[in-house]
Design a protein that fits this description.
about 110 residues; mainly alpha; 5 helices; about 0% strand
């Protein structure tokens, strides 16, 4: 009797497993990884190109993040399929944070 009650519930719940994006979706994960790589390459390139020793590091990092807005937007488009503004804001903040890391590396202030 217990099996007759539990089995239909498990069957219904297992049908929901494919309804949502999971990190095990290989093709999507590959697209996300590729987008991260493109964004990071862009940030590194612009952080190194904008390395003016007398300039404020925060300003250079923000300029690099702004120059790579297209790559960041592509990353957001692929990884934030629900359009959650908090996720978009977090990815943009991560872009500025990573840009600062590339600026510090370009100035030789961080090993890496």
């Amino acid at each position: 009797m217990r099996f007759a009650v539990v089995f239909p519930i498990l069957l219904l719940l297992s049908g929901c497993a494919g309804a949502y994006h999971t990190s095990s979706d290989g093709r999507l994960q590959t697209k996300i990884d590729t987008s991260y790589e493109a964004r990071d390459k862009c940030l590194a390139r612009h952080a190194a190109a904008n390395d003016i020793s007398g300039s404020d590091m925060q300003t250079i990092a923000q300029a690099a993040a702004l120059a790579c807005a297209a790559e960041t937007d592509r990353l957001i488009e692929i990884s934030n399929r629900d359009g959650d503004p908090k996720v978009s804001a977090a990815i943009r903040a991560d872009s500025e944070f990573r840009a600062m890391g590339y600026v510090l590396r370009a100035r030789g202030q961080v090993g890496g």
